[in-house]
C-alpha cells in the first residue's frame, strides 16, 4: 500500500494538478449550459424593441391635461420606447416621453409636459443651464449643451413644453424639432 505524502511536502505543482479536473468540469458545464461563446467578429446589434408610439401618444392625448403632439418623422426613424411620469417639483406636472432610433443608430427622445420650462429642465437635465437658442420652423428652441452630456432643446408650444434630448447630431435634433413644431395636437 502506497503511503500518502505529509502535508508539508505538497507544493504548487500538486495544487496545479488538482485544479485541472475542476477547471475542465467547469468548462464542460458552462458549454453545456450555452453560457460560453467565442466572439470572432466583435459585437453585433441586437433586436430593436418595437414601441407603438402612435397608440401611446393617442392614449396620452385622451388622459393628460395638455395638448399632445405626434410628430411625423421619416420612415427610417424607429420608435423603440416610451414612458409617462410626473414631475413633482414646484411648477411640475405630468410628462409623456417617446424614444426613437435614427437611421444613424443614435437614440433621440422627446418629452411633452405641462410643467414649466424650468421644472422640466431641472427634472431631466439636472443643474445644466441654457447655452443658446435655435430657430426651427419659426419656433425658438432653448439649447443646452455640455461637452460630457447629451445635448437638449426645449420649446414652449403654448400649453405644453417639449424637451428633446439624445445622442444625435444637429440634423437629428432639427428633424425632430421640426416634426414636433409642425405637428398639430391630437384630439382628446
TrEMBL record:
Organism: Nocardia rhizosphaerihabitans
Keywords (A to Z) from UniProt: Membrane, Transmembrane, Transmembrane helix
Keyword Transmembrane helix: yes
Membrane spanning stretches: 15-33
Protein name according to UniProt: DUF4245 domain-containing protein
Lineage: Bacteria, Bacillati, Actinomycetota, Actinomycetes, Mycobacteriales
Amino acid at each position: 500500500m502506497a503511503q500518502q505524502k505529509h502535508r508539508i511536502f505538497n507544493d504548487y505543482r500538486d495544487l496545479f494538478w488538482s485544479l485541472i479536473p475542476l477547471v475542465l468540469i467547469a468548462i464542460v458545464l458552462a458549454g453545456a449550459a450555452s453560457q460560453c461563446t467565442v466572439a470572432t467578429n466583435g459585437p453585433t446589434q441586437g433586436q430593436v424593441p418595437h414601441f407603438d408610439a402612435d397608440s401611446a401618444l393617442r392614449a396620452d392625448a385622451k388622459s393628460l391635461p395638455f395638448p399632445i403632439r405626434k410628430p411625423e418623422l421619416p420612415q427610417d426613424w424607429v420608435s423603440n420606447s416610451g414612458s409617462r411620469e410626473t414631475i413633482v417639483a414646484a411648477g411640475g406636472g405630468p410628462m409623456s416621453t417617446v424614444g426613437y432610433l435614427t437611421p444613424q443608430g443614435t437614440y433621440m427622445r422627446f418629452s411633452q409636459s405641462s410643467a414649466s420650462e424650468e421644472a422640466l429642465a431641472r427634472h431631466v437635465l439636472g443643474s445644466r443651464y441654457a447655452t443658446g437658442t435655435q430657430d426651427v420652423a419659426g419656433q425658438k428652441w432653448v439649447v443646452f449643451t455640455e461637452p460630457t452630456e447629451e445635448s437638449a432643446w426645449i420649446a414652449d408650444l403654448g400649453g405644453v413644453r417639449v424637451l428633446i434630448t439624445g445622442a444625435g447630431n444637429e440634423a437629428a435634433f432639427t428633424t425632430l424639432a421640426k416634426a414636433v413644431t409642425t405637428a398639430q395636437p391630437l384630439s382628446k
